[in-house]
Design brief:
The chain is an alpha/beta fold. The protein has one domain: 3-Layer(aba) Sandwich (Rossmann fold). It is built from eleven helices and eight strands. β2, α6 and β3 form a beta-alpha-beta unit. α1 packs antiparallel against α2 and α3 packs across α10. It is globular and about 60 Å long. Bound molecules: adenosine-5'-triphosphate and magnesium ion. Magnesium ion binds next to loops.
């Protein structure tokens, strides 16, 4: 990793870029992953690079779904493996969910590199290497493990593609996504839409699980029952607008 000074005003964002580039060099992230990260950064800038209250609400609802699930799966792609391997492993450990590697630009070599990378970061069993079922899509994200995503009741898909999100919802799974674009097909299709950076969202979810784990099933169900996903998406858009307005006014620019 290069010597980015800690006091650089955009330190976190620059380190994140370095991690994606390291992921490409390690053969776990695709070059297209750089473009996806850039799009995410733009939306993170609009929302003020923070976890909004409604995103935290979505993260709690997501944790409640995972804790109540029979077979919860956390889907891992090349970007999340490069950015947050420790957090993925920590969330799997604390919730009891399984990790499954699932790639849009799939090659067996890359799947196995990611599995090894997760294991080097403390993961036990990691699914995704078998690829013994297809979801009925024309691209490679359709390839899943029968014991994993195929039979899961709840799937957490950080940085999902819209097509597959739709397919998983059609299969009547509870689909939780993390996507900084509140209007992507993914965000508009999922059951629980977390509009937050994966680098913040997963850590928050680990913390929330520690708080919520000892709660009763009824209290977890109550979190789910009071959750309103349309409201959360609407609040993400409002938060972006307010953030831009405040920034403009700070600089003396009139908000029309
Ligand atoms: P969709 O397929 O859902 O319509 P898309 O085609 O616009 O979305 P993809 O390229 O499939 O987008 O996936 C990238 C998505 O992931 C973008 O919506 C981007 O905002 C989001 N994203 C990228 N990096 C991050 C990150 N670090 N944290 C959260 N979201 C991110
Ligand atoms: Mg897409």
């Amino acid at each position: 990793m290069t010597g980015i000074p800690r006091d650089h005003p955009r330190y976190e964002s620059l380190i994140t870029r370095e991690k994606i580039i390291d992921g490409i060099h390690m053969g776990i992230t695709s070059q297209q992953g750089l473009v996806a990260q850039g799009r995410g950064e733009a939306f993170d800038y609009l929302i003020g690079e923070r976890t909004t209250e409604s995103a935290a609400f979505a993260e709690r609802a997501a944790v409640a779904h995972i804790l109540l699930a029979k077979n919860p799966i956390i889907s891992v792609n090349g970007n999340t493996a490069a950015l947050v391997p420790e957090s993925l492993v920590a969330l799997a450990d604390v919730t009891g969910a399984m990790l499954e590697v699932n790639l849009f630009h799939r090659s067996d070599a890359r799947v196995h590199k990611i599995i090894e990378h997760l294991k080097a970061n403390g993961a036990g069993k990691v699914l995704g290497g078998k690829g013994d079922k297809r979801l009925g899509l024309s691209h490679d994200r359709a390839i899943v493990d029968e014991e994993g995503i195929f039979s899961a009741d709840v799937v957490l898909v950080p940085l999902e593609d819209g097509d597959r999100c739709q397919k998983l919802v059609e299969m009547e799974k509870t689909v939780i996504t993390i996507d900084l674009n509140p209007l992507s097909r993914t965000s508009l299709t999922s059951t629980v839409t977390i509009v937050d950076n994966v680098t913040r969202a997963l850590n928050n979810m680990v913390q929330f699980t520690e708080d919520m784990k000892s709660g009763s099933k009824n209290s977890l169900q109550a979190v789910i029952d009071t959750y309103d996903n349309d409201r959360v998406i609407s609040d993400a858009l409002y938060s972006m607008q307010e953030h831009l307005k405040n920034k403009a006014e700070e600089k003396g620019i009139t908000w029309i």
